[in-house]
Sequence to fold (141 residues):
Amino acid sequence: MSKDYTTLVDQACAVRARSYSPYSRFKVGAALLGRSGRVYLGTNVENASFGLSICAERAAVFRAVAEGEQDFEAIAVCADGTAPTPPCGACRQVLLEFGPDMVLLTAGELGSGGEVRRFTVGQLVPEAFRDFRPGGGEDGR
Ligand code: THU
Fold:
């Protein structure tokens, strides 16, 4: 039987309220579960210079790395609307960096009380760009 991530989903929905998103008015929260058992929260943070905005998922990953964790089991994402929102391509690529097996749960604003979809990060990034080697050479030189 697969693990129940109800608490993680609801943590993502709770932090969503702290989103700074005056431009899109679209609030997103993320809760990233490290293998240590710690949970790292993130929200989208927008900027008047729109391109500088960051998504909730990446905010959570960057926070976790800065706090010393790089091994992740799962991430839950909670966004406005009743239907779950799939993560953007940039966030998929950043999550993939930390493992295709990471479980990714998406929920709408009803959290675990509404529809929750479950994937692995690898499923969401087919034919991924990974294993970068400087110069593209076999030994990197
Ligand atoms: N957003 C996220 O935080 N995560 C996603 O995966 C998709 C989009 C944010 C970025 C922006 O602040 C707002 O949602 C609208 O695109």
User: Anything to note?
Assistant: The chain has a mean pLDDT of 94.
